[in-house]
């Protein structure tokens, strides 16, 4: 019976992972976050041990529970492009500096560290598929602070790899645009989900224009949250130590769509559902520049497709949810509470 520590348990990945663990295993979840609104009834589950706190303040609680638990998942991170450009130091302080003591405690107590890297570490790599063992990581100049998130995450990956050379049991996972119900607001630090889907959904339910940055030609490989959690469960179970010292892309190459295609798909679905149809019909698609939308410190990636051969073969996993089903599930999740969706982010 494993004890799993999830820091950022109320976030997008955190609450979905907790639900799956409690429903399908006999493992205990020890979770910390600053809120618990997404946990719902999970908060009262006998194997859910929730603590309201902040990793930058409640350091003794964190270290004690790292010592107590078997698997450590530090999911607290800022993952919003607007913040990279406007507050790069805030991104570095949380995503790297605040997480480094957690990594070192996992080393100290000899725990299995399952750390969220990001698809962004590959930067502007020109490979057709991003390979965790072979692809180069290519970033823009220093005056493009957009890259501080990718750079902070890459540095943490390298530090963890270095500790692995000295005996740390670790697994790095790289989510590729995970989407699904439970999309949260820009004010909640979290890892993994696609901001653009949150943003477009908010615009649709408010009847606002959808802005396509630089025409929306940039593509992303979108991954439904259930598929992502399936892979994470295999990593945490770590049968025969298969995930030790590994880096896994977790994404769905078949769901590779441009942002423009995403906007059109979401509008088509929304217009077919009575609760969304009226506001969806008022939405217009407009084009804007990345400079106008994010600020001059932004650069984008035109294509981001994961190589998942090792993820599938080693973990016995494959993504199965189509893009259409993923988007329909998101709309269904808010269908009975469209008002809640109106409070989703108004800026990616």
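Q: What amino acid sequence fits the structure above?
A:
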């Amino acid at each position: 019976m494993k004890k799993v520590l999830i820091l950022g348990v109320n976030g997008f990945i955190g609450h979905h992972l907790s639900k799956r663990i409690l429903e399908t295993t006999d493992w205990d979840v020890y979770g910390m976050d600053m809120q618990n609104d997404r946990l719902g009834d999970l908060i009262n589950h006998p194997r859910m041990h929730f603590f309201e706190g902040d990793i930058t303040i409640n350091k003794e609680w964190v270290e004690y529970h790292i010592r107590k638990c078997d698997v450590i998942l530090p999911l607290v991170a800022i993952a919003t492009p607007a913040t990279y450009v406007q507050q790069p130091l805030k991104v570095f302080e949380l995503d790297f500096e605040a997480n480094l003591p957690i990594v070192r405690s996992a080393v100290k107590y000899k725990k299995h560290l399952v750390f969220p890297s990001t698809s962004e570490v590959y930067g502007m790599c020109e490979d057709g598929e991003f390979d965790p063992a072979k692809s180069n990581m290519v970033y823009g100049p220093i005056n493009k602070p957009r890259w501080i998130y990718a750079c902070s995450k890459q540095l943490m990956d390298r530090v963890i790899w270095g500790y692995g050379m000295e005996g740390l049991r670790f697994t790095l996972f790289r989510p590729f645009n995970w989407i699904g119900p439970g999309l949260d607001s820009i004010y909640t630090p979290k890892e993994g989900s696609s901001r653009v889907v949150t943003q477009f959904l908010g615009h649709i339910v408010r009847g606002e224009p959808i802005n396509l940055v630089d025409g929306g030609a940039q593509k992303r490989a979108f991954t439904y949250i259930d598929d992502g959690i399936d892979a994470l469960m295999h990593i945490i179970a770590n049968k025969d130590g298969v995930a030790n010292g590994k880096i896994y892309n977790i994404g769905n190459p078949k769901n590779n769509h441009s942002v423009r295609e995403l906007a059109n798909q979401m509008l088509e679905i929304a217009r077919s559902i009575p609760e969304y149809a009226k506001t969806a019909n008022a939405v217009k698609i407009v084009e804007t520049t990345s400079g106008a939308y994010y600020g001059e410190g932004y650069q984008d990636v035109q294509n981001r497709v994961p190589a998942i051969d090792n993820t599938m073969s080693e973990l016995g996993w494959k993504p199965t949810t189509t893009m259409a089903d993923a988007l329909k599930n998101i709309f269904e999740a808010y269908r009975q509470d469209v008002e809640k969706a109106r409070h989703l982010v108004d800026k990616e």
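Q: And what stands out in the fold?
A: The radius of gyration is 19 Å.
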